[in-house]
Amino acid sequence: MKIKACLFDLDGVVVDTARYHYIAWKKIAEDLGFHFSENDNERLKGVSRMDSLDILLTIGKVTLKQDQKELLADKKNNLYVSYISRMTPDEILPGVISFLDELRNNKILIALGSASKNAMTILDLINLTQKFDAVIDGNKVSLAKPDPEVFLKGASELGINPNSCLVFEDAQAGIDAARNAGMHVIGVGHAENLKNAEFIIPGFENMNFDRLRSLYL
Ligand code: BG6
Ligand code: MG
Question: How far is the CA of 142 from the centre of ligand 2 (A)?
Fold first, then answer.
């Protein structure tokens, strides 16, 4: 098989934290006096915290100074951290654990490639840290997706060539980052938000090693 390593985004792929990010940003928007729709939120998926704030402020046509922006980003993160603090392994998306276990049993290496600075907290809360051979998160990279840095660092920590890596992503910025890294990529979610993915799956419920092998012989 062409694939020697799988790299997973976290938010919206392994767990449904995309929902918590959305309600935290929605609260910030409401406090600033504008509505922030779920459709608008697609533009924030996979994007770093400060870049997300800039997009949010553009949508609301609000201009702020750098120190005000930093306060707002902290406020959003405090809200988000309070929402995720009660997460449990029950919130791991269906099929994820068995797919990770099958990959390991078939000697495929596994990495996390997330823009989030809260990734380790979440992995610990949902008891999944041990399933990853490498974890690259928002604390380890300086360039946000669609820059390929997060995935290239993952491949390098695993010691695998980018062209033997497969990324699972729920966000357009993440699909673009994987492509920019020269990796294979499967979109998780709806096709309209995942242009340029090689394949699209709705989730991991029907994903297994045999299916992977048939896609990447
Ligand atoms: C990504 C999310 O995984 O992490 C984005 O898709 C989020 O919505 C980004 O903005 C940064 O996360 P955090 O937890 O560091 O604010
Ligand atoms: Mg995501």
Answer: 18
What's the gap between Cα 45 and its chain centre?
A: 8
Tell whether 119 and 173 lie within a shared domain: yes
Instruction: For 96-154, write each residue's pLDDT tens digit.
Output: 999 999 999 999 999 999 999 999 999 999 999 999 999 999 999 999 999 999 999 99
Domain boundary pick from 65, 84, 103: 84
CB 149 within 8 A of CB 126: no
Instruction: Encode pLDDT of 63-72 as tens digits.
Output: 999 999 999 9
Residues 23 and 43 in one domain: yes
* Among 84, 106, 129, residue at a domain's last position: 84
CA angle 153, 157, 158 (to 5 degrees): 120
Q: pLDDT (tens digit, 9 = 90+) per residue, 152-181? A: 999 999 999 999 999 999 999 999 999 999
pTM: 0.94
* Cis, bond preceding 89 (omega within 30 deg of 0): no
State whether 70 and 117 are in the same domain. Answer: no
Whether ligand 1 lies within 6 angstroms of the CB of 48 is answered as: yes
Residue of 38, 47, 142 best suited for mutating to test ligand 1, as the one with most atoms within 8 Å of CB: 47
Q: Which of the residues 9, 137, 170, 176 is marked catalytic?
A: 9
Q: Is 116 in the pocket of ligand 1 (CB under 6 A)?
A: yes
Alpha-carbon distance values, 93 to 2, 129, 187, 191, 211 (Å): 26, 15, 15, 19, 18
Catalytic residue list contains 11: yes
